[in-house]
User: Fold this.
Amino acid sequence: MYENVTTRVHGAVMTITIDRPKVLNALNGQTIEELGQAFAEAKKNDAVRCVILTGGGDKAFVAGADINELSKMTPISGKFVSEQGQNVFLQIERFPKPVIAAINGFALGGGCELALACHIRIASDKAQLGLPEVSLGILPGYGGTQRMVRLLGKGKAFELVCVGDRVGAAEAERIGLVNRVVPADQLIATVEEMAKKIATRSPVALRAAIEAINSGSDMPLEEGQVLESTLFGLLCATEDMKEGMAAFLEKRPPNFTGK
Ligand code: COA
Assistant:
């Protein structure tokens, strides 16, 4: 169905793999488009409750936007390229089911920006992350300047964007760029275990929580709290809420339907 992306549904978890290992999974326009389509497919499929995003081969998550394409950009096409990436990455950040990046190698430029758009980042100990765009005469154009400062603060964002050096997995974990580092051979098992656990949680509660964190983080605290209490109230009308509470009181695992 896709040329540069594969999707696999196992139980309630969809794994989306960016699969152009010969160019370290570099993102050309077609790959970004296919990525958007794969996420649209995951959104429509009610059986899917969590998404894992990773890179094909054993060297890279994504080594950036495709420099062959970037080198031909004009001001007009450059704006389109940036907007296309921004739109798909925003679709991922606002995805109503949790998205975990399994960072299995280089996550550079657009690859680092893609990881930043995911909700949770787990890295292999072989991963290297960075935003080398200024060494190519451009800046991170897929939301990277905006998400890096929100995740790490101005000091680290300036350093990563302006120096352009790569950081290893341990340093990425230390500064909060990734949530956790695991040995390379345990990466997929670790992420699958986390995804399976998420898949047992209430889909409507997850959706509301993602919305509260995403929208609330750009609001003043008091407005964010209004959003939070409104979503909290809405969840009280769901079957999942009744099921979750009943299951606890009856000392059994809940069986959420997402209604
Ligand atoms: N766009 C297009 N092709 C890319 C690419 C990218 N972002 N990143 C890697 N490739 C290609 C290389 O050109 C090479 O192709 P070739 O075999 O036809 O020569 C192939 O992938 C393997 O990469 P190579 O550079 O030989 O691997 P390496 O292990 O020596 O180095 C990197 C790995 C990631 C350090 C290096 O490929 C690199 O710096 N890539 C660009 C990273 C970047 O600047 N990204 C930001 C773009 S905005």
